[in-house]
Amino acid sequence: MSTHRTSLKNMESQFEALIDGVLARHYGTVKHFVPPALVAALREHLLATFRSGAMKPAGTGRLSTYDQNLAVRGDVIHWLEKDHNAAEKMFLEHIEQFIAYLNRTCYTGINAYEFHYALYPTGHFYKRHRDQLQSDAGRKFSFVLYLNEDWLPENEGCLVLYPEGQPPVRVLPEGGHSVFFRADELEHEVAPANRPRLSIAGWLKQV
Ligand code: OGA
Ligand code: MN
Fold first, then answer.
1. Which residue among 10, 80, 119, 182 has the highest number of C-beta atoms inside a 10 angstrom radius?
2. CA angle at residue 174 from 169 to 179, to 5 degrees?
3. What is the pLDDT, as a whole number, of residue 154?
4. Ligand 1, from 115, 131, 172: best to mutate by most atoms within 8 Å of Cβ?
């Protein structure tokens, strides 16, 4: 597992880049939030979870029927837990380090988090939305880590961000890339892709 570890200096420079991005232009991105070996291990666990049938359609909170829901978002999800396997434990501990850094440097008062795997089957999408739902005002920051191998621009499936007063920004969901933004502020959408699209999405919360 030693190949999964990152030096403290490198880790903190990734955290800084995400935070600086939010302060400067409403979103932060980095290319290697965690080492490639951990991205690969998380991808394998996502795919094993999918094959076992444990990934379920995500709710939208408002819409009741499966078809109504599918018109808004088409991913299937499964929540991460530290006791599932070493990769999920390592990822969530990395997130805890990020939260500690964020609270120490920005006084953000984050005291909880939740993260799920997401798989968007070919052609599925998530319409433009904000992540802080009325039913979940505790969500302060959103975070996504992509788990796709060799994603090409022609595969589409970009995350499209709509920062206020700026042109839309398209992020290719290549493995290891991460995006960070305020959950109550930034509207965004997931465009359909021509191959299954894998990620971890989650929220830093104040509860
Ligand atoms: C979400 C979401 C973005 C992505 O799950 O709320 O917007 O790029 N995900 O997967
Ligand atoms: Mn979202």
1. 80
2. 50
3. 98
4. 131
Hey, which residues does 115 pair with through a beta bridge?
A: 202
Rounded to whole angstroms, how far apart are CA atoms 86 and 82? 8
Residues 35 and 46: their CA atoms lie apart, in Å, by 17
The pick from 181, 186, 188 for probing ligand 1's pocket by mutation, whose C-beta has the most ligand atoms within 8 angstroms, reads 188
Question: Residue 202 is encoded by which pair of tokens?
Answer: 């989650």
DSSP-derived letter for residue 31 is S
The CATH fold of domain 2-205: Jelly Rolls (2.60.120)
Low-confidence residues of the chain: pLDDT under 50:
1-3
Whole-prediction pTM value?
0.94
What span, in angstroms and rounded, lies between the C-alpha atoms of 95 and 22? 17
- Return the C-alpha torsion angle 42, 117, 25, 96, nearest 10: -70
Residue nearest to atom 1 of ligand 1 (CA): 201
Going by the DSSP 8-state scheme, the letter that residue 26 receives in this structure is: S
Q: How far is CA 161 from CA 50, 80, 143, 190, in A?
A: 27, 25, 13, 9
